[in-house]
């Protein structure tokens, strides 16, 4: 199997990369880790005439704390983020989700920016970024701009990133006050397969009361989706009085599960409902006892 | 279509060549460098047969361009055993646990395991088992591989 012919450029600066994209007028693809793009090229589902490799721009790999949050460079490699001290301490939900992204061997090269930019509806990273109210930094010859993750995802594989823009970083704002608890599950036939359904989020607690809830589905619609109605119902509730089934029904309200060869929409919805209720019950019970 | 001069370390030796931009590292290793231990199964990242080490990490050689290996240290299954033929610990354990049959998937699995047991953090059996999950074996099955993973976790330095 061979990709259709293309040229390859490996610019040493972001400005040079942006200039190449602008000049290509939409015929170029950015390659980050390539773990999704390379299969598409090999299968000739994607046929750019130029690949712009971001691998020689070191500042895109930085993971750092700055005022108001943590900035994760788009080219930060998934396996490195999994073991990164700042991610483990301050973005535990991301660390948890990354363990489900592809396989060990694809996480060796796969990047968080690539995962966000590709916007696969069943992918974990966009859901984590959406749940944690991350902002996407985009760079082009026109300058830099930031887009909230909620406005970034437009549809399956469609985002606010214009053809001449490069995703350069994700900025995760500091979490709401209160002790936080991760809420995460993913259902897949085998580890590494695409999710059939999944949820990523956090609850923020003050004593035994939920003061903030941020939950996002993946593989339950055209993009990752926030479970806003369930979040609203959880805020103000005491851990020991939550009714998981009722919250699960609210959480499914905005979803649009789809049929594909891996699962029917009805199957996804049934499993999502039960897994949501079970995960919420176990999360609350575990915390109420602690 | 651009063509590029590339040079990288291949199993400890300098490799220099040319590659079309679209040539995968797997194709380049097989066709230009003659390292046919790099097996190609699915060519889109699902099967794991083409796994090699790049700068010490296990990666899919079908999901990387040859030109992207510029300046890297690449290791294939041909570079696992010592020059006198002594098998690498991973190869020896795979052999003793009957963790291969036809051998098509074996080079990739050996490179994944070798990357982990030679890595900075000592992997436990669970980590090795999960990493093997990135490979498909269609004849001998996975029980021998699981035994090998458990032994390697104990053996790891």
TrEMBL record, chain A:
Domain of life per record: Bacteria
Q: What is this protein called?
A: FAD binding domain-containing protein
Q: Where is the FAD-binding PCMH-type domain?
A: 1-177
- Species the sequence originates in: Novosphingobium aureum
Q: Does the keyword Transcription regulation apply?
A: no
Keywords noted in UniProt: FAD, Flavoprotein, Oxidoreductase
A GO molecular function assigned to this protein is: oxidoreductase activity
From TrEMBL, chain B:
MF GO annotations = 2 iron, 2 sulfur cluster binding; metal ion binding; oxidoreductase activity
List residues of the 2Fe-2S ferredoxin-type domain.
4-80
Which terms are listed as keywords in the entry? 2Fe-2S, Iron, Iron-sulfur, Metal-binding, Oxidoreductase
Q: Which CDD domains match?
A: fer2 (cd00207)
Which SUPFAM superfamilies did the record assign? 2Fe-2S ferredoxin-like (SSF54292), CO dehydrogenase ISP C-domain like (SSF47741)
Q: Which InterPro entries match?
A: 2Fe-2S-bd, 2Fe-2S-bd_dom_sf, 2Fe-2S_ferredoxin-like_sf, 2Fe-2S_ferredoxin-type, 2Fe2S_fd_BS, Beta-grasp_dom_sf, Diverse_Oxidoreductases
Asked whether the keyword Cell division is assigned, the reply is: no
Keyword Phosphoprotein (UniProt) = no
Q: Name one Pfam family in it.
A: Fer2
Q: What is this protein called?
A: (2Fe-2S)-binding protein
Q: Which organism is it from?
A: Novosphingobium aureum
């Amino acid at each position: 199997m061979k990709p259709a012919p293309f040229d390859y450029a490996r610019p040493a600066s972001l400005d040079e990369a942006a200039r190449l994209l602008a000049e290509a007028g939409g015929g170029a693809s950015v390659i980050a880790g390539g773990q999704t793009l390379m299969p598409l090229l090999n299968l000739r589902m994607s046929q750019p005439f130029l690949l712009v490799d971001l691998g020689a721009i070191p500042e895109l790999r930085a993971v750092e704390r700055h005022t108001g949050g943590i900035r994760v460079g788009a080219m930060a490699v998934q396996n490195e983020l999994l073991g990164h001290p700042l991610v483990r301490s301050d973005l535990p939900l991301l660390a948890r989700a990354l363990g489900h992204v592809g396989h060990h061997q694809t996480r060796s090269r796969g990047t968080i920016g690539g995962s966000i930019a590709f916007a696969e509806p069943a992918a974990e990273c966009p859901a984590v970024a959406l749940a944690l109210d991350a902002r996407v930094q985009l760079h082009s010859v026109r300058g830099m701009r930031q887009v909230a993750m909620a406005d970034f995802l437009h549809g399956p594989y469609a985002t606010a990133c214009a053809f001449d823009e490069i995703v350069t970083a994700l900025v995760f704002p500091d979490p709401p006050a209160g002790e936080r608890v991760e809420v995460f599950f993913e259902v897949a036939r085998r580890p590494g397969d695409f999710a059939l359904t999944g949820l990523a989020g956090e609850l923020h607690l003050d004593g035994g009361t939920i003061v903030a809830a941020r939950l996002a589905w993946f593989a339950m619609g055209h993009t990752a989706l926030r479970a806003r109605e369930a979040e609203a119902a959880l805020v103000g509730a005491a851990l020991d009085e939550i009714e998981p089934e009722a919250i699960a029904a609210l959480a499914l309200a905005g979803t649009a599960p789809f049929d594909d060869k891996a699962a029917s929409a009805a199957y996804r919805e049934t499993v999502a409902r039960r897994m949501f209720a079970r995960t919420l019950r176990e999360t609350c019970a575990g915390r109420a006892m602690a | 279509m651009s063509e590029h001069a590339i040079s990288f370390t291949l199993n400890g030796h300098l490799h220099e060549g040319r590659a079309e931009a679209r040539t995968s590292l797997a194709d380049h290793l097989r066709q230009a460098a003659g390292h046919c231990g790099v097996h190609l199964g699915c060519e889109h990242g699902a099967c794991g047969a083409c796994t090699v080490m790049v700068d010490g990490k296990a990666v899919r050689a079908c999901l990387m361009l040859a030109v992207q290996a510029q300046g890297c240290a690449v290791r294939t299954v041909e570079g696992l055993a010592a020059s006198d033929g002594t098998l690498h610990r991973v190869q020896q354990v795979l052999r003793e646990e009957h963790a291969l049959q036809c051998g098509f998937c074996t080079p990739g699995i050996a490179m994944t395991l070798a990357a982990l047991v030679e890595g900075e953090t000592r992997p436990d059996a669970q980590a090795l088992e999960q990493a093997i999950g990135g490979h498909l074996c269609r004849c001998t099955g996975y029980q021998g591989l699981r035994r090998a993973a458990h032994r390697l976790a104990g053996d790891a330095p």
